[in-house]
């Protein structure tokens, strides 16, 4: 199979380029894209990429595989390759450090902005802050996000305004804390989001939902934030 | 919180709501005009000018004119903040859009009440 990989080493290369590799995959076995990269790494040790848990939990190996963002470790080659060709590029929209490794600084800045931690100014109880099963249920589909950045880097609104638009991942997390019954900073959180960019730059094209490797729905969370803002203001 | 002074309502929520409300007005008007034309295949000039002479129709049409202005202002403002990165050029484009929309609204009022 032909594997085309985006190569860029800023210390040596003037511009990024695509490098083709030919590889024989074992018969009768559907490897994951990360396995293919590991095999290629044995051939050419200069290929750089991030990976860690190799089972879709850590979110390190987010990349663009034949045009679609996803985690290389849980994407089968049969799904990612088109016409026996696999094209691997870094996640789009963020600066490339080297080859498939991107600088996630801007992504984390947006995450930091939404204050991704529980804020509660009431005195802490002796044991723990209790939630009813119904209250806990509201966090399902939100807390599972692993911050792999596949969604935000698939979003044109994030490409054009990564400094102003929080992006699908950050907004999913924002709603995770807005929906949490133990959080008391709901009003301040909403006030921080009520500008033309942070939330409202989302035009609902749902690229985020299409690529999320954990099957989450940031568009729905963004809709819920809008509803909360609307309920507060009308 | 991202500060913005050139957006329509200076609040994301307000712009978003106005965009939807104006879209609703525009679609109602479109459906109405198409329906009216389909139901009156032998439309005469008198009938057409009689329709636009009615006060309710003028209110409806003026609402549509304002909706077009608001809707396109919010839309073009979004596009300009996405694609025009040079501040001077972006401000010029936004001002130009504002001016053109104002001209259209005034001109539209003149057309509506000049019948």
UniProtKB/TrEMBL annotation, chain A:
Q: Where is the 4Fe-4S ferredoxin-type domain?
A: 135-165
List the SUPFAM superfamilies. 2Fe-2S ferredoxin-like (SSF54292), alpha-helical ferredoxin (SSF46548)
One Pfam annotation reads Fer4_17
Is Transport one of the keywords? yes
* Reactions that this protein is recorded to catalyse: a quinone + succinate = fumarate + a quinol
Q: Does the keyword Iron apply?
A: yes
The cofactors required by this protein are: [2Fe-2S] cluster; [3Fe-4S] cluster; [4Fe-4S] cluster
- The protein's enzyme class: oxidoreductase
User: Pathway, according to UniProt?
Assistant: Carbohydrate metabolism; tricarboxylic acid cycle; fumarate from succinate (bacterial route): step 1/1
- Source organism, top-level taxon: Bacteria
PROSITE patterns from the entry?
A: 4FE4S_FER_1, 4FE4S_FER_2
- What does the record give as EC number? 1.3.5.1
Chain's role: Two distinct, membrane-bound, FAD-containing enzymes are responsible for the catalysis of fumarate and succinate interconversion; the fumarate reductase is used in anaerobic growth, and the succinate dehydrogenase is used in aerobic growth.
PANTHER family linked to this entry = SUCCINATE DEHYDROGENASE [UBIQUINONE] IRON-SULFUR SUBUNIT, MITOCHONDRIAL, SUCCINATE DEHYDROGENASE IRON-SULFUR PROTEIN
Give the family, as the similarity comment puts it.
Belongs to the succinate dehydrogenase/fumarate reductase iron-sulfur protein family.
Q: What is this protein called?
A: Succinate dehydrogenase iron-sulfur subunit
What is the organism of origin for this protein?
A: Marinomonas transparens
Query: What taxonomic lineage is listed for the species of origin?
Result: Bacteria, Pseudomonadati, Pseudomonadota, Gammaproteobacteria, Oceanospirillales
UniProtKB/TrEMBL annotation, chain B:
Residues noted as binding heme in the record, renumbered to the chain: 71
From the UniProt annotation, give the residues forming the signal peptide. none
Q: Which cofactor does it need?
A: heme
What are the GO MF terms of this UniProt record? electron transfer activity; heme binding; metal ion binding
**Keyword flag Transferase:** no
Q: What is the lineage of its organism?
A: Bacteria, Pseudomonadati, Pseudomonadota, Gammaproteobacteria, Oceanospirillales
**Pathway, according to UniProt?**
Carbohydrate metabolism; tricarboxylic acid cycle
Per the record, the major location class is membrane
Which GO terms of type biological process are on file? cytochrome complex assembly; tricarboxylic acid cycle
Ordered alphabetically, the record's keywords are: Cell inner membrane, Cell membrane, Electron transport, Heme, Iron, Membrane, Metal-binding, Transmembrane, Transmembrane helix, Transport, Tricarboxylic acid cycle
Protein's name according to its UniProt entry: Succinate dehydrogenase hydrophobic membrane anchor subunit
> Where found?
Cell inner membrane
Q: Would I find Heme among this entry's keywords?
A: yes
Instruction: Give me the comment on cofactor binding.
Output: The heme is bound between the two transmembrane subunits.
Describe its membrane topology: Multi-pass membrane protein
Positions with a binding annotation for a ubiquinone: 83
**Per the record, GO CC terms?**
plasma membrane
* InterPro entries xrefs: SQR/QFR_C/D, Succ_DH_anchor, SuccDH_FuR_B_TM-su
Q: What does this protein do?
A: Membrane-anchoring subunit of succinate dehydrogenase (SDH).
Q: PANTHER family under this entry?
A: SUCCINATE DEHYDROGENASE HYDROPHOBIC MEMBRANE ANCHOR SUBUNIT (PTHR38689:SF1)
TM annotation in the entry: 21-39, 59-79, 91-113
Q: Which Gene3D superfamilies does the UniProt record give?
A: Fumarate reductase/succinate dehydrogenase, transmembrane subunit (1.20.1300.10)
């Amino acid at each position: 199979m032909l594997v085309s990989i985006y190569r860029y080493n800023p210390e040596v290369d003037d511009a990024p380029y695509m490098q083709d590799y030919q590889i024989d995959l074992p018969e009768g076995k559907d490897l994951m894209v990360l396995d293919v990269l590991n095999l290629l790494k044995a051939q050419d040790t200069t290929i750089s990429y991030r990976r860690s848990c190799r089972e879709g939990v850590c979110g390190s190996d987010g990349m663009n595989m034949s045009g679609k963002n996803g985690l290389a470790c849980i994407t089968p080659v049969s799904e990612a390759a088109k016409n026996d060709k696999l094209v691997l590029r870094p996640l789009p929209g963020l600066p490339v450090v080297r080859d498939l490794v991107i600088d996630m600084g801007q992504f984390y800045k947006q995450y930091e902005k939404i204050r991704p931690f529980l804020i509660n100014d009431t005195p802490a109880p002796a044991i723990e802050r209790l939630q009813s099963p119904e209250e806990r249920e509201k966090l399902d589909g939100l807390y599972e996000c692993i911050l792999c950045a596949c969604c935000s880097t698939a979003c044109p609104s994030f490409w054009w305004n990564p400094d102003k638009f929080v992006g699908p991942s950050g907004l999913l997390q924002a709603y995770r804390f807005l929906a949490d019954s133990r959080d008391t900073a709901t009003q301040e959180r909403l006030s921080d989001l009520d500008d033309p960019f942070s939330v409202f730059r989302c035009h609902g094209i749902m690229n985020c939902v299409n690529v999320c490797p954990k099957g989450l729905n940031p568009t729905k969370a963004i809709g819920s934030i809008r509803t909360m803002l609307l309920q507060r203001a009308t | 919180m991202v500060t913005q002074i050139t957006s329509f309502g200076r609040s994301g929520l307000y712009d978003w709501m106005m965009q939807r409300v104006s879209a609703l007005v525009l679609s109602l008007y479109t459906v109405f005009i198409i329906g009216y034309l389909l139901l009156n295949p032998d439309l005469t000039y008198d009938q057409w000018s009689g329709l636009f002479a009615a006060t309710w129709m003028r209110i409806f049409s003026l609402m549509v004119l304002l909706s077009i202005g608001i809707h396109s202002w919010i839309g073009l403002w979004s596009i300009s903040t996405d694609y025009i990165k040079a501040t001077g050029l972006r401000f010029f484009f936004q001002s130009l859009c504002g001016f053109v929309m104002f001209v259209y609204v005034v001109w539209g009022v003149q057309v509506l009440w000049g019948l």
